[in-house]
């Protein structure tokens, strides 16, 4: 392998699970090599060269006949792990490494092992941990002594003894020799296929050794169990773990097994993935401190009314068939020392109508994740709870009236349906909150202010609504320590609106103006009010309300007038002229204008005698203008001071009912200075500038000509019969 040989600085080389049959030069040229994994190949031999730096060497699961141990291996003083494989063992084969103190040795025995067996071949090894893998699928007929004096931890794999009429006599003999090693404290049996009776026999054998921790995994049991007594005396065992058990009998009475397990005088017991449907209460006060029955088929009746687990501190019932939370509560009531309970991955539900929840008073840690619990669970919690895991349930909110959570320090509500980030008003001691994968769109900006003791918040992967409310939360995140908000900023992204989807919250920016309502009001509303006041003042100054009223009144009268044909209106003319004048000029009108016109049989319309009672003033003005051939306006400085004169001029000027006629006659009684005419009288300004008006002469000699001109301008023969005139004082 020239490519490898050229890597002179190589320290780690892993080429396992290949088809390598021969390897040469790796040890010779790669002097810095520290980690070499050649396992699961087809190696039959290797070349040996001194390598002083090697710490990990794995030659297991290969095709070696004898142990591949070179004399040069004796110089590997830094070697910590050594993996070997062989089909035959000789004590002389390990002599070159007997001076080494190796942390762990893995020995894989080939399929033909046992034909020339040296039972004492491993006795000179010096290792703290020894793992021996016997041939797969082969009946255990071996005498190998694995009681290596320096070994603290021993693992034996592939134990099969189902054909021997004497049970597992060979394997039992191997276990009995473990008594010689007083240092051995950990024993693991993996991948075992034996009978029920042999299984209990093995437990009893180990019970009388110095082993403190015994683990059995991947067990296949056959046959039935004979009733027998189990001797619990004289044991050093502290913990027994049995994991992943299957048996070939469909219906097996397990009561005797439960009795043996429940009465063990040890501190830790684990029976997981064993299809266990029940567990009985110990017959006397049990020393159990730790029980783990996860991944079984236990129901709510487990340990019902059990008073002999008073010393139990940790109970794990994860992944069973538990359904009613209230039954679990009553189960723990008698467990006076219980501090940790795990009932996750069940089908637990709680109904508030079921009453109070008398939990074990010392319960500090409770895992109820992956159930079907709702908001009501917060009314059924232990009084001194410190760690609570409720992730993956059906919780929508934390009820505001919940009590008894003053001691809670860690809360996991991930993968629920919460819409709001809870504050710490009722969680005064909360320091860790996990609330990711919920439905939180706008977390409160006051969270960190209300949760002064929080030192870890995990709230990512929520459908955040990127808005002003979220902007304030983002700002508050920036004010806390970077390690407080876990997953920031990778797990915090906008979900809504669509235009911001996928945007990290740290990159979401919105202006202060669009989020600050007070500032928005000051910026928009105040200028709007100022503009409105200015427009209103301008309208008042330009007398816009007056014009609006005139338009309204005129429109009403015009609507009625449109229903009368033009010829008919002309036949209804009753007056030669309508006179508009201010009250202050009434003396001239009555003493001069009336007598000089009416003596020539000219009919004059005056407001004080011709306005109809009951009609509006504007309507009377329009009616008079409509029934008069001409409209005469007596102009003087007093005219521009009269609002009614202004109305009359407005309607006469627009010629509402005599379109196309020239019906306006202006008489200038007294000169009117231009500056004295208000801006609202712009029509008067225009008329005086564009039209010829009659000026009242001061010299009496010119009065005759004045009257002659005036009479000539209004002299017309009226077609209609004059209506009866009603005099109305206004």
Automatic annotation (TrEMBL):
Per the UniProt record, which residue ranges are transmembrane? Answer: 518-542
The UniProt entry, under PROSITE patterns, shows: LRR, TIR
Q: Which Gene Ontology terms describe the biological processes this protein takes part in?
A: cellular response to triacyl bacterial lipopeptide; inflammatory response; innate immune response; toll-like receptor signaling pathway
The SS bond pairs are 357-380
InterPro entries reported for this sequence: Cys-rich_flank_reg_C (IPR000483), Leu-rich_rpt (IPR001611), Leu-rich_rpt_typical-subtyp (IPR003591), LRR_dom_sf (IPR032675), TIR_dom (IPR000157), Toll-like_receptor (IPR017241), Toll_tir_struct_dom_sf (IPR035897)
Main location as per UniProt: membrane
Could you tell me which species this protein originates from? Capra hircus (Goat)
Q: Does the keyword Glycoprotein apply?
A: yes
Membership in a protein family: Belongs to the Toll-like receptor family.
Annotated protein name in UniProt: Toll-like receptor 1
Q: What does this protein do?
A: Participates in the innate immune response to microbial agents. Specifically recognizes diacylated and triacylated lipopeptides. Cooperates with TLR2 to mediate the innate immune response to bacterial lipoproteins or lipopeptides. Cooperates with LY96 to mediate the innate immune response to bacterial lipoproteins and other microbial cell wall components. Cooperates with TLR1 or TLR6 to mediate the innate immune response to bacterial lipoproteins or lipopeptides. Acts via MYD88 and TRAF6, leading to NF-kappa-B activation, cytokine secretion and the inflammatory response. May also promote apoptosis in response to lipoproteins.
